[in-house]
Amino acid sequence: MKFLDLKTQQKRIRKSLQVRFDNILDHGAYIMGPEVHELEEKLADYCGVKHAISCSSGTDALLIPLMAWGIGPGDAVFTTPFTYVATAEVISLLRATPVFVDVYDSTFNIDCDKLETAIQDTIKDGKLTPKAIIPVDLFGVPARYRLIDNIAKKYNLKVIEDGAQSFGGAIGQKKVGTFGDVAATSFYPAKPLGCYGDGGAIFTDSDDLADRCKSIRIHGTSSDKYNSEIIGLNGRLDSMQAAVLLEKLKIFDEELDMREHVNSYYRRYLNNAQYIPKNYQSANALFSIILGSNQKREDLVLKLKKNSIPNVIYYKYPIHLMKGFDYLKYKNGDFPVSENLSQTIVSLPMHPYLTETEIDLIIEVLKK
Question: Which of 25, 85, 232, 365 has its CA 20 to 30 A from that of 326?
Answer without folding.
Answer: 232
